[in-house]
Design a protein that fits this description.
single chain, 244 residues, alpha+beta, five-stranded antiparallel beta sheet, 6 helices, 36% helix, globular, phosphoprotein
């Protein structure tokens, strides 16, 4: 065996590994600001989509600032935090929900975006839950009565095309418009995704996705589990009777 040749090969391989590692590190660092900006723009688009506002990427930030008039941070009791360094937009709802797993549930923070569109106020809430194969998430907007759903925007990581992935479609999402999260007595009931279909007069239910029972159930749980954290705030702020 030619030891000198083996040594040369080893040295050459080591040098190449180091060079490649440096190139990848430099590339990752240089691209980080662009990736962060793209992530922020995508988040803004998703928030706006819950109020049926679409925009081009280069106009997203301006459009967001035009419609989103206020951003609020709520604590675990639904109380507005005024002396808080954390911005609503920067809150990662997944990380906040995960605090429950570590015994820090009382330290959770919840973002709320207040929007003005066509002279009317809307309240936008981020939601996150579990589908059949992975996480599902999105935004739900409520009208000024903090009871009537104006619109929703849902997405997913790995739901089945043609089944659970249908939560991303307009056909499924448009069902939520006009639904109520409180009943006539003012009790929080959320919006339920009903297997077999909701009755025409059901103001709290929408049709489930055929063949996607678990994902549909996941959407129901997601809405109920997230929205209940905002109810104390809504109860204090509401100026319109629940019964319309």
């Amino acid at each position: 065996m030619d030891k000198d040749n083996n040594k040369t090969t080893f040295i050459f391989s080591s040098v190449m590994v180091i060079i490649v590692a440096i190139v990848l590190s430099v590339t990752a660092i240089s691209l980080a600001p662009y990736q962060e900006k793209n992530s922020r723009v995508e988040k803004m688009k998703n928030i706006l989509s819950s109020i049926s506002v679409t925009t081009e990427s280069d106009q997203t930030e301006a459009t967001f600032d035009k419609y989103i008039t206020k951003q609020i941070v709520l604590n675990n009791k639904g109380e507005e935090l005024t002396n808080n360094n954390v911005k609503a937009f920067d809150i990662d709802i997944k990380k906040e929900l995960d605090k429950s797993k570590t015994g820090n549930e009382d330290k959770r923070l919840f973002p709320l975006f207040i929007c003005n569109k066509d002279g009317k106020s809307f309240y936008i809430i981020p939601v996150r839950g579990k589908g059949l194969w992975g996480p599902i998430w999105g935004y739900i907007s409520l009208e000024n009565d903090m009871n009537t759903v104006y619109g929703v925007s849902f997405s997913h990581k790995s739901e089945t095309p043609g089944l659970g992935a249908e939560i991303e479609t307009k056909k499924f999402q448009q069902q939520f418009a006009g639904k109520k999260i409180f009943d006539e007595s003012g009790k929080f009931v959320s919006v339920d995704v009903i297997k077999g279909g909701a009755k025409a007069d059901n103001s709290h239910g929408v049709d489930a996705i055929s063949g996607a029972t678990i994902t549909s159930h996941g959407v129901s749980n997601m809405l109920e589990n997230i929205l209940e954290n905002y109810i104390p705030y809504f109860k204090k702020q509401q100026t319109v009777a629940f019964k319309n």
